[in-house]
Amino acid sequence: MMEHAGWISLIPALSVLVFALITRRTLESLIFGSLIGFILLEQQSFFPAFVNSSLGVMGDPTIGWLILVILLFGGLISLLVKSGGALAFGNFVSSKIKSKKGALFITWLMGIVIFIDDYLNVLTVSTSMQKITDKFKTSREFLAYVVDSTAAPVCVLVPLSTWAVYVSGLFESNEVAAAGMGGAAFLQVIPFIFYGWVALIVVLLAILGVIPKLGPMKKAEIRAEELGICVPEGSGNTSLGNDEVAASIEQGDGSSGKTKPKIYNFLIPIIVLIGYTWYAEIDLLQGVMVAVAVTLVMLMVQRLMKVSELFDSLLEGFRPMIYPLGIVVASFILVDANEQLGLTAFVIETVEPLMSASMLPVVAFVSMGLVAFATGSFWGVYAVTLPIIIPLAGALDANMWLSLGAVISAGAFGSHACPYGDATVLSATGAGIDTMTHVITQMPYVLLSGGIAALGYLVLGIMM
């Protein structure tokens, strides 16, 4: 039996959510919740424990990987904008798109096509489509929702994404599949990953107007359509692009007045980014490093900017990524506090009496979805939960693939809904709004998708 602190283990996550709703500040809320967690763990010695956890997180290879990936993405995007490549791409796409629905549909489609990794997805799509959707008076809130809905929900449905590779490895280590057969097992689970399918369809129906604008999103869309204000006032616009350059999409002029913007200065780096990430066995860090190097060489050869200007532009791209990086690092500190308090173990122990063959899928989805939402640990939920759900499904004679699909759906739901989840933060950053604005406006759609997925697990759990 895993150890936990009982109901007390819920306090840090609840503190973060309450503080974030009151202040609408994500980073500060995470720090506050983490401090509460270490106060509960260590009492008077909470601050040294908090510092040690912070140092441990900063020394984690995963965090180092994230820092490099996110900073280099910011630098790459800055180079694409300053070179005029992003402008040329915007001109080209704008000439083909004739309506708001068309712009949003292309955004949705790009989110599906760039399926390899959720970071690659949200940062590429949001910054590529930002000014194009502005042209058709789409709120940045709705753009962020479309981008976020095609991140983790798409990655869990594609057997060649980073998410799928990770889960396939867990299938093998937990003996659901033989060595080397984890991918084949994942293929059997895909039809049962209901949240991914539902979230993808719900956002498409919202784009087409079949599902109306709901709650805060309705207000945001009215503001954009009637007043032409796409970026919410006071949201702390964190746009990664150069607004003066990108705004010229509508005029179709050059990026510097010297040469006409060339679309290949956008397309080649993006193709290199995706292609090398794939070649390097889905290592996004290698992909973005090579893409930055190729972009620098291309711009040097064309003499679009001096060498000093190129590297200044690269460094300028780091700046808007500092705040989202702070959120990601702080979320890992909160995860450490939650793990020491045994939050996941407490939830599993609490819901275990509710488990039966028919109820296992829906209980697994709802409970683990809430854990992922509260902790911001999505892959961590998989690592902790699958060793419990797999033997439990076997003992109860529950449908194994349906039960596994429920757990994978729970992680995708958490990534989509969590206010301090990495994909949530980066979707907001790429769309140029603050994180809490994004979370609040997309929440009705996330809850709708989650409710439909839960109903699916309940019905099929009984039928299968």
From TrEMBL:
The keyword Transmembrane helix applies. GO terms for cellular component: plasma membrane. It is a multi-pass membrane protein. It comes from the Bacteria. Keywords: Cell membrane, Membrane, Transmembrane, Transmembrane helix. It is found in: Cell membrane. The keyword ATP-binding does not apply. Residues 183-462 form the Na+/H+ antiporter NhaC-like C-terminal domain. The chain crosses the membrane at residues 30-51, 63-82, 102-121, 186-211, 263-279, 285-305, 317-335, 355-374, 381-402, 445-463. This is Na+/H+ antiporter NhaC. It comes from Alteribacillus iranensis.
